Amino acid sequence: MTTNSYLSIDHLKFDGNSYDPTTGKEKALPDGQYIYRLTANVDSDDAGSETQTMDMPIKVDSTKPEFNNVNLAKNDDGKWHVTGTVTDKTSGLSPLSKIGISVNGFAITAKLDPQVSQAKDFSSVEDFAKEPLKTFDFDTEITDVSQYLKDGINNIQVAAIDNAGNPGSIEIKATVDVASNSNSLILFNAFDGETTDDTDTYYNKDDKTYTIYGNYKNDFYLNGQPVKVDDDGNFEAHVATTDGMDKLIFSQDAKQNIVIKTIKFGFAAQPVTTLDLPAGGQWYDMTDGSRMYGVNNTADTFTLSGSVSGSPSDIVTYGYNEGGSTFEPDSYNLDKATSKFNALFRMVNGSSAREGENIMSAQRSPRFLASVKLTAQKLTCW
């Protein structure tokens, strides 16, 4: 194709467009090989001055590279690779062209041909003047992002840029089995289906965390928090605990898009009971070192009230008889909104006061005593 452009010396440029005299406008040239010819005459009255020309080959390429037969597989070397064919028929590709590969949103960049070293194989003008590649079969190792593969369907994106700077890409869905990822996670002191509380040896009451020990091949996230492994893969993770926590999620990212493993692991703080102390009573020092609050009571019933820490779903109240057997209250009520409770007991003749924490005795006469003990529990904790 031949096109004429009349430009001043200040506007010598070629932008891939050509003037169309039929429309009076610039239009983009089709992809292909062109010769950009500069013609000049000496500005002189000498009629014999010669016209000088200079031809420059220019290739117009607006077409992006195309990919075919892209596949994700684990090779004989035990590593994950993305393979396929990339084609660009116009400006072509260089072995040094970059190829980008994304696994579930986590990307790496490599040379199209990993066997080519710029310092070794492309060290002269002649090397770079070699005929561009029109088609190239690539095989790119993705070890740096293979940890983000998950069981089932994975999103794999591949992108490359041709010699004209046109970017081309493709996205595929690859279904793989990477169960070995989760199997390589070893936990030393946490087990699926386990439930613990704030009395556990691994619980730190100062910062309210639970320490998990284990081994994994690389750094990861636990319940959204980063965990570092040492050179041997061992780790010590401090998990923030909340009352009612019921699982541990091990993932490759903070947003838990790539989950390594999930286990059922319950945590609940032991409830603390605070009893209301009726007026007119007093504390007694018991022989075992504990203290008991006693109050005179001349009625046939006695109301025990107080509050429970946390968010209890139910309470258990009972009294002790002289022989050690227990008896239930006539009625009790727990206000879950305020965690306050009350229980109504009948006075029992012939019983004696029990010693221990959170025990009050209700006394009808100096001889006959009744004691009431309260325990509290969250049902999900047991």
Quick overview of this protein structure:
Helix content is 3%, strand content 48%. The protein is mainly beta and 382 residues long. A hairpin with a 5-residue loop joins strand 25 (314-320) and strand 26.
Our measurement of the CA-to-CA distance between the termini, rounded to an integer number of angstroms, reads: 85 Å
Structural class: mainly beta
Question: What spatial order of strands do you see in the largest sheet?
Answer: 22-23-29-30-25-26
CATH class label of the largest domain: Mainly Beta
Rough outline: elongated
Could you tell me the number of beta strands? 30
Share of residues in helices: under 10%
Pick out the low-confidence regions.
Answer: 118-122, 350-382
- How is the main sheet built? 6 strands, mixed
Mean pLDDT, to the nearest integer, reads 76
Query: How many domain modules?
Result: 4
| Cα-based radius of gyration, to the nearest Å | 40 Å
Per CATH, which architecture of the largest domain?
Sandwich
Q: Give the DSSP E fraction (strand runs of 2 or more residues).
A: over 45%
CATH topology label of the largest domain: Immunoglobulin-like
Per DSSP, the total helix count is 3
From the structure above, extract its key features.
single chain; 382 residues; mainly beta; Immunoglobulin-like; 4 domains; six-stranded mixed β-sheet; five-stranded mixed β-sheet; 3 helices; 30 strands; 3% helix; disordered C terminus
